[in-house]
């Protein structure tokens, strides 16, 4: 797939790294400032925030641009500029803070959107940043409280009839952990700018966008074309 595919009304997994693997968060104030900027900007850019994980050198976001695809790039550009200015001023940093481009993969609703939530909210543990699963800079706490800058997620809401039931179902789901194969699938797809979902999702995006967005693998036969009747 050439270029970055962004579509209104779909969830996108955003990954952004620090330049040359450098830290983009040095202290609590940095984390808090970044999340405050996300909260301030997402409404103006008509985005729904469905999940996040902030690591010392990486940013993971699940975002849905609900009007214009370009709103996502404008949001990420503005967010990066404002945070960089504050970071450089506080820490005396000089030079580029971010990698040149953020990485982005469309996510299928249902299982794969919940799987991405589970993956990013478990990342601190997978990276060895916490032993007990507690990391203050993911959306997990906001999800439990149904508060903060987190927007309602249809798949999460469908887990139960009330906040307590939803949280218990989600907690059981996340307690299952993330298999290495699932983590690799999500990581590879996002890094390559591909779709995080199944073949039906690929067909849907190709139909809606009118573009071939994924190469057809050897196990994925091409659809047969109907033969034209002779005149």
Q: How are the SSEs placed, and which strands pair?
A:
Elements: E1 11-17, H1 28-44, E2 47-55, E3 58-65, H2 70-91, E4 103-107, H3 111-126, H4 140-145, H5 154-157, H6 163-175, H7 180-192, H8 199-209
Antiparallel strand pairs: 1-3, 1-4, 2-3
Helix pairs in contact: 1-2
The proportion of strand residues reads 5-15%
CATH architecture: 2-Layer Sandwich
CATH superfamily: Transposase IS200-like
Indicate the structural class: alpha+beta
The order of strands across the largest sheet is 2-3-1-4
**What integer is the average pLDDT?**
89
Q: Span between N and C termini?
A: 38 Å
Number of strands: 4
> Share of helix among residues?
40-55%
Could you describe the largest sheet, including whether it forms a barrel? 4 strands, antiparallel
Rg estimate, integer Å: 19 Å
Q: Do you know the CATH topology?
A: Alpha-Beta Plaits
What kind of assembly state do the chains in view correspond to?
Answer: single chain
- Global morphology: globular
Tally of alpha and pi helices: 8
The CATH class is: Alpha Beta
Q: N-to-C SSE series?
A: EHEEHEHHHHHH
- Which stretches are low in confidence, meaning pLDDT under 50 for 5 or more residues running? 218-231
Number of domains: 1
Protein name: Transposase IS200-like domain-containing protein
Biased composition (Basic residues): 221-231
Domain Transposase IS200-like: 7-123
Region (Disordered): 210-231
């Amino acid at each position: 797939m050439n270029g970055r595919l962004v579509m209104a009304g779909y969830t996108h997994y955003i990954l952004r790294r620090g330049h040359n693997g450098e830290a983009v968060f040095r202290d609590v104030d940095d984390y808090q400032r970044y999340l405050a900027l996300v909260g301030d900007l997402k409404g103006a850019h008509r985005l729904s925030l469905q999940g996040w994980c902030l690591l010392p050198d990486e940013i993971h976001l699940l975002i849905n641009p609900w009007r214009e695809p370009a709103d996502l790039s404008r949001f990420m550009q503005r967010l990066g500029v404002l945070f960089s200015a504050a970071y450089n001023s506080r820490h005396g940093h000089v030079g580029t803070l971010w990698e040149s481009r953020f990485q982005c993969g469309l996510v299928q609703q249902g299982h794969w959107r919940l799987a991405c939530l589970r993956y990013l909210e478990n990342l601190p543990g997978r990276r060895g940043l916490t032993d007990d699963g507690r990391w203050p800079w993911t959306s997990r706490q906001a999800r439990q409280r149904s508060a903060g800058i987190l927007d309602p997620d249809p798949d999460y809401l469908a887990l139960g009839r009330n906040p307590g039931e939803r949280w218990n179902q989600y907690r059981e789901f996340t307690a299952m952990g993330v298999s290495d194969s699932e983590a690799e699938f999500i990581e590879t797809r996002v890094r390559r700018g591909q779709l995080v979902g199944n073949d039906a999702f690929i067909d849907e995006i190709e139909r809606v966008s009118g573009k071939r967005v994924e190469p057809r693998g050897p196990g994925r036969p091409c659809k047969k074309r109907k033969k034209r009747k002779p005149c």
